[in-house]
Specification:
This protein is an alpha+beta fold. It has three domains: about 5-70, TATA-Binding Protein (2-Layer Sandwich); about 75-95 and about 220-290, Endonuclease Iii, domain 2 (Orthogonal Bundle); about 105-215, Hypothetical protein, domain 2 (Endonuclease III, domain 1). The protein is built from 16 helices and seven strands. It has helices at about 10-15, 60-65, 75-80, 85-90, 105-115, 120-135, 145-150, 155-165, 165-175, 180-185, 190-200, 205-215, 225-235, 240-255, 255-270, 280-290, and strands at about 5, 25, 30-35, 40-45, 50-55, 135-140, 140. A five-stranded antiparallel sheet has the order 1-5-4-3-2. Strands 6-7 form a two-stranded antiparallel ribbon. Strand 3 and strand 4 (about 40-45) form a beta hairpin. Helix 8 crosses helix 9 and helix 11 (about 190-200) crosses helix 12. It starts with a strand and ends with a helix. Mean pLDDT is about 95; it is low at about 285-290.
């Protein structure tokens, strides 16, 4: 059965292919992914989002709306970010790019696997891990394994999933965390959450910020990788340590730093040698002159 809901603005292509999550792939005009214990199939028709799930379940709509943060007020967020002249022009072209909300445990393991790996390899590692240890939700499709199940796996078994050196971190995370720990961490203030995440095996500053943003839903988080460091240097003329760049972003973008990060990340990947940037210093200077 196909269910319908309205989420606007929403661009599935921008949202699901921008490095926030690793279990979605496009087939024709639809996107397929796994949320919880359901295979979800999404397709947009104008302002309508069509949702199908296997097994068939009307709760799938609520899962999808939570996953793409349907309640985020994008016009308000962009108005707040428009006080920054770099972002003031160009944001209208990424209105449909939304931050995702993924299960915290899945997000944590996924971004630990993402260290020093490109998106295709991350996707392969995640899918292999799910196939080996996750419950089958429909034929050939597996849920992400929970903490207890991964805790039963040996490091050798985890390494057999192609995780490389990351296998020891996944095993250590499964041993030191429980579902109760995740629930407790949801209640922590942002800085306390971030500090606790950094203290976990295999988690550095960038992974902690990714998990805080895409897992725990803290929109003030601002993950910084080589793309973001390059963007901050090119557009704002700032460089330095992770701490210095993070403080700059926090002061500059405030409570919606996560959305600013995703816009800037998409822009930096778009530019390339011949790409046309949405955000540039020249366009920012033009905004300032007009003001």
């Amino acid at each position: 059965m196909t269910y319908e809901t309205t989420i606007a603005p929403l661009d599935l292509d921008l949202t699901l292919s921008c490095g926030q999550t690793f279990r979605w792939h496009k087939e024709g005009d639809s996107w397929k992914g796994i949320l919880g214990r359901r295979l979800i199939i999404l397709r947009t028709r104008g302002r309508t989002l069509e949702v199908r799930s296997e097994p068939d379940d009307g709760d799938a709509v609520a899962l999808v709306r939570e996953h793409v943060r349907a309640d985020d007020d994008i016009p308000r967020i962009q108005r707040r970010l428009a006080s920054d002249p770099v972002l003031a022009r160009g944001m209208r072209d990424v209105r449909g790019l939304r931050i995702v909300k993924t299960d915290e445990w899945e997000c944590l393991v996924s971004f630990v696997l993402a260290t020093y790996a490109n998106i295709p390899r991350i996707t392969r590692m995640v899918e292999t891990l799910c196939t080996m240890f996750g419950d089958e939700v429909t034929e050939g499709v597996h849920a992400f394994p929970d903490i207890r199940r991964l805790g039963q796996a040996s490091e050798k078994e985890l390494a057999g999933c192609g995780l490389g050196y990351r296998a020891k971190y996944v095993g250590a995370l499964s041993s030191c965390l429980t579902g109760g720990d995740i629930r407790r961490m949801r209640r922590l203030p942002f800085e306390d959450l971030r500090s606790e995440l950094v203290g976990l095996p295999g988690v550095g500053n960038k992974v902690a910020d990714c998990v805080a943003l895409f897992g725990f839903g803290r929109l003030e988080a601002f993950p910084i990788d080589v793309w973001m460091a390059r963007a901050l240097k090119r557009l704002y003329g700032v460089g330095g340590t992770y701490k210095a760049l993070h403080e700059f972003a926090s002061d500059r973008f405030g409570e919606y730093a996560g959305y600013a990060q995703e816009y800037l990340y998409y822009n930096e990947r778009l530019c390339g040698p011949r790409g046309e940037c949405l955000f540039s210093k020249e366009r920012a200077d033009a905004v300032v002159r007009q003001d």
